[in-house]
């Protein structure tokens, strides 16, 4: 997975840190329930990262099922293999989301959690998911819509400038959240549910974990979206104020092949 507003190539297990926050735990739990995974199912986790969610999936399929984690980054795939080695019903493969290494109609359940915003062609990746899923199999998707990022600041122009940087420069497919239902339907899926799991973030440290406010302010200044003085004023208020508020849409979709 590529670097973005919500990923890092540093050795810190960023995806694990995000997954441990209350907002992430909530929507991940709902996605897992919605998939209705049964014992013996074959489950695909597209963009598995460092195995953040593989153990939970392994518990659902039981010893007779199988979980396959896919990640295009060889280092990420290697980390996931090492971390999940204690689960004999899980395997991790390095592979491209646009060319999945499975025969048609062989997967019972699949999930893609904040992955399609990174891929070169989300429509092609969804078509591949539709190809490998059995008829009637379920797919769970979750993607942010970065144009909806709203962070409270007395200077609304600074807030808008930061959001514009995140939406326009920090992610490959910044509007993928709102596009999920349409793209999934065009790929052949039947949409079951569409929800917005937007969280109200009132703690700076939690928002920093999820949004990378400090590093992305530095990048926004370097890219010309904020002046150096504006960047300092932006962060000074966010870190020194007595209140904090941020929110961004996170669209979840449950669809059937």
Describe, in plain words, how this protein is organized in 3D.
The chain is elongated and about 55 Å long. It is an alpha/beta fold and 257 residues long. It has helices at 14-19, 22-35, 54-61, 74-83, 122-132, 156-168, 176-186, 204-211, 213-222, 228-240; strands spanning 42-46, 66-71, 90-94, 107-113, 133-151, 190-196, 246-256. It has one domain (14-256): 3-Layer(aba) Sandwich (Rossmann fold). A seven-stranded mixed sheet has the order 3-2-1-4-5-7-6, sandwiched between helices. Residues 1-12 have low confidence and may be disordered. 40% of the residues lie in helices and 23% in strands. It is built from ten helices and seven strands.
Quantity of strands, as a count: 7
Overall 3D shape: elongated
CATH fold call: Rossmann fold
Classification by helices and strands:
alpha/beta
β-strand amount: 15-25%
Radius of gyration: 19 Å
Strand-helix topology:
Blueprint: H1 14-19, H2 22-35, E1 42-46, H3 54-61, E2 66-71, H4 74-83, E3 90-94, E4 107-113, H5 122-132, E5 133-151, H6 156-168, H7 176-186, E6 190-196, H8 204-211, H9 213-222, H10 228-240, E7 246-256
Parallel strand pairs: 1-2, 1-4, 2-3, 4-5
Antiparallel strand pairs: 5-7, 6-7
Features:
257 residues, Rossmann fold, seven-stranded mixed β-sheet, disordered N terminus
Compact summary:
The protein is built from 10 helices and 7 strands.
């Amino acid at each position: 997975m590529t670097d973005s507003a919500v990923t890092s190539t540093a050795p810190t297990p960023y995806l694990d840190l995000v997954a441990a926050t209350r907002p992430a735990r909530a929507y991940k739990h709902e996605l897992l329930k919605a998939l209705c995974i049964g014992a013996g199912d074959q489950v695909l986790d597209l963009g598995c990262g460092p195995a953040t969610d593989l153990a939970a999936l392994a518990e659902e399929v039981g010893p007779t099922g199988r979980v396959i984690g896919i990640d295009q980054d060889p280092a990420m795939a290697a980390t996931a293999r090492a971390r999940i080695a204690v689960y004999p019903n899980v395997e991790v493969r390095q592979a491209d989301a646009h060319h999945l290494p499975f025969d048609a109609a062989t997967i019972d359940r699949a999930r893609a959690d904040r992955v399609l915003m990174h891929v070169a062609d989300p429509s092609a990746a969804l078509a591949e998911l539709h190809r490998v899923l059995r008829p009637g199999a379920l797919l769970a998707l979750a993607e942010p819509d970065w144009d909806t990022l709203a962070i409270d600041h007395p200077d609304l122009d600074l807030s808008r400038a930061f959001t514009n940087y995140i939406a326009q420069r920090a992610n490959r497919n910044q509007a993928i959240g709102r596009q999920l239902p349409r793209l999934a339907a065009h790929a052949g899926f039947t949409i079951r549910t569409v929800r917005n799991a937007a969280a109200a973030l009132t703690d700076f440290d939690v928002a920093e974990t999820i949004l990378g406010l400090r590093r992305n302010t530095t990048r926004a200044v370097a890219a010309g979206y904020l002046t150096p003085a504006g960047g300092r004023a932006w962060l000074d208020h966010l870190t020194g104020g007595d209140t904090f508020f941020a929110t961004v849409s996170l669209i979840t979709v449950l669809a059937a092949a």
